[in-house]
Amino acid sequence: MKSDSMRLGFYYSLKPLVPRTIQILLRRRATRFKLHRSLKTWPINHAASKPPEGWGGWPQGKRFAFALMHDVDTAKGHSKCRRLMALEMQMGVRSSFNFVPERYSVSPDLRNELVRNGFEVGVHGLKHDGKLFLNWRTFESSAVRINQYLKKWECSGFSSPSMLRRLEWMHALDISHATSCFDTDPFEPQPDGVNTIFPFWVNGHPQKKGYVELPYTLPQDHCLFVMMKERDIDYWKIKLDWIAVHGGMALVNTHPDYMKFDKGELEMEEYPKTYYEEFLRYVQKEYAGQCWHALPSEVADFWRTTMVHQIGQEQLKVSVVGFS
């Protein structure tokens, strides 16, 4: 684990020195290589379909859970949030917007507008510089500031930048739920998946409360449309259909930073927002009345009250190989 932390630390120290265009080209090459090696476990890892012990199903007898979240990585993404909010309101869905508090200026008016319209807000790391989990001292001092933003923004959800994580450290955060894992994603810096398409409980330490982990279960948009240069949403459809069959949680994490809302030529890290619209229409057409569409906090509340309290914490733990 120490050598992996050193490797990631070295990478994120060099990253600012490499032009973004070169970064993307190198990552695209690495993505092609990893894809070839992961055909049996991505986008579907069949081992992830097993429900937890004591599982009794989703609210209202729905077939599967469906949750939407957006990690807002940059000021550019922040500037697109209102257009994304309007798109989702028009389509009758709601989501969570997770902001990076010390990378750009987060508008209080935007946060309040989101909440007024039925959306929710979360904290997406602190600076999004890849250094949050380098060592305990760094994380401990950062956790103090993260908790201040959680309190100020009146929220309890945390999304980990780049899905870097140390689950046992995150008990220092005043959170009820987090997204820092995935069922399967070999393209992330810490590629170890949790092999489940269901939420799970992360036990607390003495005097520290536990929290619900909500792993994302559909490929992220940046991976599909920027790294892999896909020009359709087939991967999303295939994975969603598989999750529906097995009754899991379809959690989709997208980024307004990379959505293009205007007409014109796409930039290197953009994809048409129509891809996202098409996906939402697909869910509404194919699974109308079958899925429980809920905010991440609602999924976490359900899991905590129905599974953790009734079944027991010890039965709900999931072992995360490598970076637990």
Broad structural category: alpha/beta
Q: What is the β-strand count?
A: 11
CATH superfamily: Glycoside hydrolase/deacetylase
Radius of gyration: 19 Å
Low-confidence stretches: none
The helix/strand series, from N terminus to C terminus, equals HHEHHEHEHEEEEHHEEEHEH
Mean pLDDT: 92
The best one-word shape is globular
CATH class: Alpha Beta
Q: Do you know the CATH architecture?
A: Alpha-Beta Barrel
The number of distinct helices, counting runs of at least 4 residues, comes to 10
Quaternary state reads: single chain
What is the CATH fold-level name? TIM Barrel
Q: Estimate the helix proportion, in percent.
A: 25-40%
- Total domain count: 1
* N/C terminus separation: 10 Å
Strand content: 5-15%
Instruction: Report the biggest beta sheet as strand number plus sense, adding barrel if it closes.
Output: 5 strands, parallel
Describe the model.
The protein is α/β, with parallel strands linked by helices. The model has no long low-confidence stretch (mean pLDDT 92). Strands 1, 2, 3, 8 and 11 form a five-stranded parallel beta sheet that branches. It has one domain (2-316): Glycoside hydrolase/deacetylase (TIM Barrel, Alpha-Beta Barrel). It has helices at residues 2-14, 20-37, 75-79, 81-90, 108-116, 136-152, 221-227, 234-246, 273-286, 296-311; strands at residues 64-72, 96-99, 120-123, 157-159, 177-179, 200-202, 211-213, 249-254, 259-260, 271-272, 291-293. The protein contains ten helices and eleven strands.
